[in-house]
Model the fold of this input.
Amino acid sequence: MAYLELQNVSKLFGTVAAVKDFNLAVEKGAFISLLGPSGCGKTTTLRMIAGFEMPDAGTITLDGADITGVPPNKRGTGMVFQAYALFPNMSVRDNVAFGLEVTGHPKKEIDERVREMLSLIRLKDTAKRFPHQLSGGQQQRIALARALAIRPRVLLLDEPLSALDAVVRVALRGEIRRIQLELGITTVYVTHDQEEALSISDRVVVMNQGLIEQAGSPEEIYRQPKTRFVAAFIGTANQLNGVLVDRAQVRFGETILRAPVPLALNELSKIVVLVRPESIAVHATAPTDAQNILEGTIQTITFLGPITRVGVDVDGTRVVADLAVSNRAAFTHTQHVWLSFPADACQVMEST
Amino acid sequence: MKQRAPFFQILLVGLFIAYMILPVIATYIFSVATKWDITLMPEGYTLEWYQTAFDHPYFSITLTNSFIVSIAAVLVGLLFIVPTTYWVHTRVPCAKTLLDLLMILPFGIPSVVLALALIRVYSFPPVGRSPFLLISACVIFSMPFMYRPISNSLMAIDVHTLTESALSLGANTLQILIRVIAPNILPGILSGSLLVFATVFAEFTLANLITGASFKTFPILLVEFTRRDGRIAAALSVISFTVAWIVSLAILWVGGRGRKPTEEALGAR
Done:
């Protein structure tokens, strides 16, 4: 039995199932992210772990004990919310001390713990300040310290960085991960930002419409998406619709592509080939030795900072490829180009 | 965008304030005038009306009684309305419309009707015709004044997130109410308390009918004097206004000390 387990958990709001038959096992000390678009049920799931929603079916166990019916203030879970939930009427010190004060800890212990927590989040000098005097990023760090001060068994974070600007977000997610590793605390993190999830989690659970699409390490999710949804949601993937030819070939339009075909797909099924833009090379002249070659005309050239993304029209299908820095200036709009990619960069899936 | 000096607006507001405050000023002047029948300003000034008022055997008793009733009405009102409103806002949001309605009902009940109805129903000792009944009547009658500001304050803060954060940290509902919610709805609590104190302090009908002579409040004394000597009545009115102002200032001053962080936080949102 894992440290935190959700078994067959379901939640309905009226007739709409927000979460359907959800099963999840989280090992002690692991950092798992629930990732998905708005409305996929990730926040509802988190709130059920916290005790703010009651599951309509299923059980939630923590450290071997069934906590499904336990009220939220008795579960030993600490939560960080998206909206800054710091108490505006209390100083930073009082905010962080709150959880310990309401449970009757001695003052000396509380003071010591508050100092410890403020050190941990590297905001030692803010003890006497009030929330409205701090920046958004600082407030969220205080919120984190406050949740950790009570030594929770599980730390729950509900899109804690969504309301912050991009630079702060990247810095703070690293901080959260650093603190989590330092304390070894089991953490469940909800986000709709895939970069966030992939960069800091041990495991990612991709959710869609109340169901788990795929659960695995960030690399597995990225390189071996199991469903079309995961492939489309994580990163960018070109989707080439075609039909099977044999165990190693697929027909896409007029071209035969070489790609590994999973055994589960039979000969007649309509399939889709997924290729990520970073695996595709762009050539001004026809390449001679490539496993897969497509031809088309450049429609768009988008500068994205570290990469330049080229959108190519291949017989009506838009295919995007990323250009290396050195290659950027070589191409122009409406230029006829060739795209090449190896067979193992392709993933073949059933087209639903 | 340049703002034109709103001369017309200032004039209008000034006239309105003058219109409202003139009777009050006149009362003040009358209470210190020897004779003010036919001249534009009083013929002379004196403090003898105040002296007569203070010397009256019932002066201190009625003043004390009024304070007791007003303060009790504020405290009982807070005790009932703050937890209830909080509960409805967080746990039973569908009942909010019903609560809003309930809290407007007292406006539709004239004090005479309320007093007589209560006397009828609670005619048994020790409740019948006692100060307790009067205080209860005042609580009911002043409910809208307490409820509205508190409800508005609750809506201005993110009650749900604050409550849930506090719960996740291990607090129970009472702790949340006292440590987190009340301090953050202090503006509402203060407004409500002020309004209730002022209205109950000045309430005549309920006191007159429910307790009458057995427990006289200040307005009863005042009304008695209006029938006897207008100048002393004026002095008592001035005392009444002054009490209300002092209490208002006191409540605002006490509240002002803890209010700033919350206000700034609300403003920053």
User: Anything to note?
Assistant: Residues 59-268 of chain B form a domain with the MetI-like fold fold (CATH 1.10.3720.10).
